[in-house]
Design brief:
CATH class of the largest domain: Alpha Beta
CATH superfamily of the largest domain: P-loop containing nucleotide triphosphate hydrolases
Shape: globular
Radius of gyration: 18 Å
Strand content: 25-35%
Helix content: 25-40%
Order of helices and strands: EEEHEHEHHHEHEEEHHEE
CATH architecture of the largest domain: 3-Layer(aba) Sandwich
Strand order of the largest sheet: 5-6-7-3-8-9
Number of strands: 11
């Protein structure tokens, strides 16, 4: 049986955005298929980490630095997107809002914001897109305009779009932002189903987003890895108080953690 390459290896990685270095000396290894949460306050560098993984930001070259995705340090971005599913907080482009649900999912095969006239769409692509929508409980959205959907419905379509390639890893950047309580709960249960066949790397600042399937947590603060380890060891009030600089009380229910 062929071993899958390691999903991510970062060693002594610094990343700048503009003139400012926002990630400092990051050391992080993630296995393909692993379920992991990246937790930290706003502005700590979580989203920049995702952009580094997807080759939207590049590390500063210096001796001892190493960064590999699926065992490679160089990727054509379009090729890499066939191996990664990425779901951000926003739609991938302004044309997505005036695209019907099924077409928005099909556009994931091309990493485009909509189905442009020059793209060649096959029956197999449409069938795969419908399968992804069905997995997300969203087949009824196939003919709806994305711009007319609720925030929760849009998020389902975007996750389906990210899954059409059947990637080994799904990257989620603040997936429950702008969702009401009911939509948050529905999305988390859907992601639990996705986790049965796909690795998940979730960036969040909400404890409740950390799924029961996620056994490892990486904490980030001020652009650095603050802690990395088993969920039950790190989700403790003293650790979280230091991470977020606020008093914390914790409770666990049905595998989910909550704070106040």
């Amino acid at each position: 049986m062929t071993m899958q390459p390691e999903f991510l290896k970062m060693r002594n990685v610094d990343i700048a955005r503009g003139e400012k270095v926002v990630l400092h000396d990051v050391n992080l290894t993630i296995a393909t298929g692993e379920h992991i949460a990246i937790l930290g306050p706003n502005g700590c560098g979580k989203s920049t980490l995702i952009k580094a993984i997807t080759c939207e930001c590049y590390p500063i070259l210096r001796p001892g630095m190493e960064m590999k995705v699926y065992g490679r340090d160089r990727w054509d971005v379009q090729e890499l997107r066939k191996h990664l599913g990425v779901v951000g907080a926003d739609l991938p482009g302004e044309r997505t809002a005036v695209t019907r649900g099924l077409d928005a999912v099909v556009s994931g095969f091309f990493s485009s914001s909509t189905l442009w006239p020059n793209l060649e769409v096959t029956d197999a692509m449409r069938a795969g897109a419908l399968d992804a929508l069905t997995l997300l409980g969203a087949a009824h959205l196939r003919d709806r305009w994305v711009g007319e959907m609720s925030a929760g419905e849009k998020r389902r379509v975007m996750i389906a779009r990210a899954l059409v390639h059947r990637p080994g890893m799904l990257l989620l950047d603040e997936p429950t932002n702008a969702l009401d309580l009911a939509a948050q709960r529905e999305l988390r249960e859907i992601l639990r189903d996705v986790a049965s066949g796909t690795g998940l790397l979730m960036v969040t600042h909400h404890l409740a987003d950390i799924l029961p399937e996620m056994d490892r947590v990486v904490m980030m603060r001020a652009g650095r890895i603050f802690a990395d380890g088993p969920k039950r060891e790190l989700l403790q009030a003293p650790r979280l108080e230091e991470l977020f600089a606020v008093e914390v009380e914790l409770t666990e229910r049905n595998g989910y953690w909550h704070s106040w």
